[in-house]
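Task card 7
Instruction: Convert sequence to structure tokens.
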Amino acid sequence: MALALSLGRRGLGTCWPNPSVGCVIVRDGRIVGRGQTASGGRPHAETVALAQAGGLARGATAYVSLEPCAHHGETPPCAEALVAAGIARVVGALQDSDARVAGQGFACLRAGGVAVTLGVMADQAARDHAGFLLRTEVSRPLVTLKLASSFDGRIATATGQSKWITGAHARRLVHGERARHDAVMIGAGTARADDPSLTVRDLGIDHQPVRVVVSRHLDLPLMGQLARTAGDVPLWLCHGAGAGPERVEVWQGLGATLLPCAVKGVQLDPGDVLRQLGAAGLTRVFCEGGGALAASLLASDLVDELIGFTAGLAIGAEGLPSIGALGLERLEAALWFRLVDTRAIGADVMHRWVRQLK
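Output:
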């Protein structure tokens, strides 16, 4: 099962809206087939593993990181394929929460005479599939918030200088995190100040995550990197109904996808932004700020994971804070996260935190 989970993790960021599943087929103590969900979501991991195993699948055990599908879509159900191949036993980590499956895959296997064991390494599988499960259950993707800051929590000097606070090793790891997510998201202020490309570079990876910019008024630079590459790398713009129709038309003409979102106060409603992204198929979003967007997501309790990169310098109170105002008066009202990893990355420190259950 550990190998099946590892195979599934290799496809994170490439399979949406489908989950990235791993499957390993074992017969007489020997691996005869292995597979992961292919880029784009098809074929499924079980199909790949069965094709590799061929006739050796008969009487074998299949380890799957998520319940095999039971519904007819672009391809026949994987549960039926496992039965037809003569698999004797299926060991599953987790039940699928998609209403089209939700136990029906395992029921199909049992009805076909296949022995089923469920719950092996379920906690790890739940972490691996968290984005898919969130989209299925609450209609939004998983959100990872990345903050790269000075020791005193600043992301730029008072004059706006920010390149580079953290070092090359940290930036390379960030590119790896982008690749493991379906989309990279920033706010309009960051798009204007940094003119980022938001692409994955220097890792030998072909696919690119969707680039998402949250901009109520679509007041984004038309000569910047995002505009110049909108027709080449997917660019989705979340905006309010008040955005001028001429701006909508210009960005559509450049190749961007426009997603109208509800407004809450003076900002776009972060909950509706994520619902729109979930409806469009995204399961995992890597948010790189800025401070206002980070604060709105935290204030709405929409951050599932925090990744911080802290550099060994201090900028001072006049610098730009990594998180905007939250309006907290009491510590009890703050969101708490649980530390799960910390390590040195070049000259910086990386620390990873996950949502602390209440």
